[in-house]
Specification:
With 282 residues, the protein is an alpha/beta fold. It is built from 10 helices and 13 strands. Helix content is 26%, strand content 20%. The longest helix is centred in the first third of the chain and has 16 residues. The two termini are 32 Å apart.
Length: 282
């Protein structure tokens, strides 16, 4: 069996990490399926950490993907057809496949995290493009939220189980952290430049006696950071899906840096000729 996980996201590492988390779940279950990741992420090297194939394709805008006669010449369409998956798992970005999803004869699954009702409508044309759950064999909500379409609800997806990470002493030894000090992880993987900006904001914690561990996937940071969670008394991280649910699942004291509402949730203000690229860059 061949399974392809597709994410249209570009910046931020959270979407590719979800694909990696699904891979780990398959390994735990003893699955021998041929599994690969597909997308335009800035973080394909994270998949390399686990020898997961990642097919990197260029990000395409609505010029390539929004018209039926053009989308079948897109790199995305041609790549999926060449891969010939038995199961296609789509992460959130339903609109990039909307004009050709019914061409695909494989089983199709789409994963949604918390999303505004506006996220199911894409006003690039008249009438607007709208998500149709009938295009998929299974629609899954990966966290609790009030959704406007029928969805199967599952527990949030995290990359590790509790018994799979380092114990406190081992984690601190690997990080070079003295056993009796307070230790804080500052981890941020959002847009380029955000790590440096927010790091300055929280540098005062060093003066309050914390041993600070700074990590960003843009700079070869700890990955997966959850492997080291037992070393930390406090975690400061972005308020994204993976960071939030990982810290909740591992019961860590955490402070979340909020993200501004992205263009994916704010369609009314879109006027750019490359709207799709704005969405995927969030």
């Amino acid at each position: 069996m061949k399974i392809v996980y597709y994410s249209g996201a570009i910046t931020g590492s959270g979407h590719i990490i979800q694909g990696i988390s699904i891979y780990h779940a398959m390994v735990r279950s003893g699955s021998t399926a041929d599994y690969s990741l597909l997308g335009s992420s800035h973080f394909p090297f994270l998949a390399d950490e686990f020898s997961i194939p990642h097919i990197q394709i260029p990000a395409e805008d609505e010029t390539s993907l929004s018209a039926a006669e053009r989308c079948r010449n897109s790199t995305l369409y041609r790549t999926i057809r060449e891969l010939e998956p038995d199961i296609l798992i789509v992460d959130l970005t339903w609109f990039t496949l909307s004009h050709f999803i019914r061409d695909l004869t494989c089983k199709k699954i789409i994963l949604f995290r918390q999303l505004s009702p506006d996220g199911f409508i894409f006003p690039l044309m008249d009438p607007p493009l709208q998500f149709d759950p009938n295009d998929y064999d299974l629609v899954i909500a990966t966290e609790p939220f009030e959704h406007t379409h029928p969805m199967e609800e599952i527990n949030p997806i995290v990359i590790r189980n509790r018994n799979e990470i380092f114990l406190k002493e081992e984690a601190r030894t690997k990080l070079g952290v003295p056993p009796e000090t307070r230790c804080c992880l500052f981890a941020l993987n959002g847009k380029p430049g955000e790590f440096e900006e927010y790091r300055k904001t929280y540098s005062y914690l060093e003066d309050e006696g914390y041993t600070m561990i700074y990590s960003s996937n843009y700079k070869g940071g700890l990955f997966p950071a959850v492997d080291y969670f037992n070393a930390f008394d406090l975690i400061i991280t972005g308020g994204g899906y993976n960071s939030f649910w990982e810290t909740r699942y591992f019961e860590k004291e955490a402070y979340y840096i909020p993200f501004p509402i992205g263009t994916f949730l704010s369609y009314a203000s879109w006027t750019s000729p490359s709207l799709l690229m704005e969405v995927l860059s969030e």
